[in-house]
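Forum > Structural Biology > Help requests

Title: Can anyone predict the 3D structure of Secretion system C-terminal sorting domain-containing protein?

Hi all, first post here. I have the sequence for Secretion system C-terminal sorting domain-containing protein but no way to get a structure on my laptop. I'd be grateful if someone could post the structure tokens.
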Amino acid sequence: MKALYLLAIAFGSSLVAQTITFNGCHNLFDNQNFIFTKTGVDSYNKGIYITTPVDGQPCGGLGTCEFKIQWNNTLTRWEFIADEGNGTFTTPSLIYYNSTGNNGSQRPPSNTFGTWIENTAITTGQCGGNLTGTNSTMTGDVHSSSLGTSDLTKSKIQIFPNPVSDVIRISGIDNGQTTQIYNLDGQMIRSEAFDEKINVSSLSTGVYVLKIVTKNFESHEFKFVKK
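Reply #1:
Sure, ran it for you. Structure tokens for Secretion system C-terminal sorting domain-containing protein below:
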């Protein structure tokens, strides 16, 4: 994709809080939605979201676009980046970034929380400034408060035993919808309807991430060790 012309983001959700859909920056892009799918988590348990399809997605008359939302732990901020054109993200361009109250959240902030700052060095100001609720939409697997995945709620949720040999038990949640298990490479290896007991006896020894998604699309993630 042609560097610089990246900016009409669209964050909105359709699948159980696993997608983000964005629409904005119409000066550079057509008025269309861009769908980001969560592909896993990084080493800090932060979600990684990439547009689908990664390659060949039309964006107005500018060619094809590949976008990614990810956590930059060095700069402690979420970043919206654009690929150089082949889906590898080896030398991406930074389009927006948000560093307000996000350290504790495993999901990126919405366009109405903190400030998604336009990187005018790349966009030359053609996006019309920082993201707001009036110039863009961003919905789905995002958060709109400083707690993100509510720390207060999460403190009431427990998984045990940990380490575990056979069955993980979940307590403190009454509106669970799904549970998902990821390896440390961010690959989802299991997804099933919520149950307070999860049999993990078939997993290989190692460290995993258990993600619990509620019926109101909140998500809670916990590391556990399989003995």
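The CA atoms of residues 43 and 200 lie 22 Å apart. The first strand starts at residue 19 and ends at 24.
Shout if anything looks off.
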